[in-house]
Amino acid sequence: MEKISKSFPGVKALDEVDLEVYEGEVLALVGENGAGKTTLMEILNPHPAPTGFYRQDSGKIFLKGREIRPRNPSEAQALGISFIHQHFNLAPNLTVAENVFLGREPRKSGILKMVDMAEMRRKTQEILDSLGEDISPDVLVGGLSVAQRQVIEIAKALSQDACLIIMDEPTSALDRDETERLFHIVRKLKAEKISTIFITHHLEEVFEIADRIVALRDGKRVGDANIADSNVENIVRMMVGRELTMSPKQQVPIGDVIMEVEGLSRNGVVQ
Fold it and tell me: Which residue among 32, 74, 124, 244 is least packed, with the fewest CB closer than 10 Å?
């Protein structure tokens, strides 16, 4: 992405931002709230808005050396760019296989061109096996955990031959074990030369999973670094634009009780 700019009424959300992603790379995109991270990604994989889909006001996008200008999510996905949002785009009343191939169901030959359910289940199982996940293609998505639904979103991206997957705050609703499982999948994608843009506020995760980091602040690219050459303090300095000093803990005497709860119960919630 070269010199991408985007303005909304009264706000310049992006100001000539450059972003490059290498094949098989995990790129961490960081910045405070409002820095422009999600807006930049919603231009790469256009996001629906009241006035239409997000498009840059200026700047160019290239994929594998060829200039592209996706007009909607379908066009971006056809190019191999998938966006997994914080709020998943899944139909809870459909099965895993039906979600993975929704709108792209394999068809049987013949006049009626009926959906080939067996082939759809087979392909879905193949993708889930490649991710090392023990999820049945036949279960309803509504009964899956948040972590499992995230896997289904990744499986859907792989079914579309994605070469670049954007993950927006993918660990925000995961516990530590689920986060480790997600990182294991991201490493599998990396081994398959699939690139990942990883948007997160959890900087400790950046050092676990990312190869490189790009920081945005107030709609501008303000820094980048290889993870091996950086630390949390440097990243925070890029994000906020100043040195943050942490005061040492002070010993303060503990006072009297100011609030206490006894015997609190609520049916089905706490006893």
Answer: 244
On whether the pTM is more than 0.70, the answer is yes
Q: What is the 3-state secondary structure (H, E, C) of the chain?
A: CEEEEEEECCEEEEEEECCCCCCCCEEEEECCCCCCHHHHHHHHCCCEECCEECCCCEEEEEECCEEECCCCHHHHHHHCEEEECCCCCCCCCCEHHHHHCCCCCCECCCCCCCECHHHHHHHHHHHHHHCCCCCCCCCEHHHCCHHHHHHHHHHHHHHCCCCEEEEECCCCCCCHHHHHHHHHHHHHHHHCCCEEEEECCCHHHHHHHCCEEEEEECCEEEEEEEHHHCCHHHHHHHHHCCCCCCCCCCCCCCCCCCCCCCCCCECCCEC
Report pLDDT digits (tens) over 93-108.
Answer: 999 999 999 999 999 9
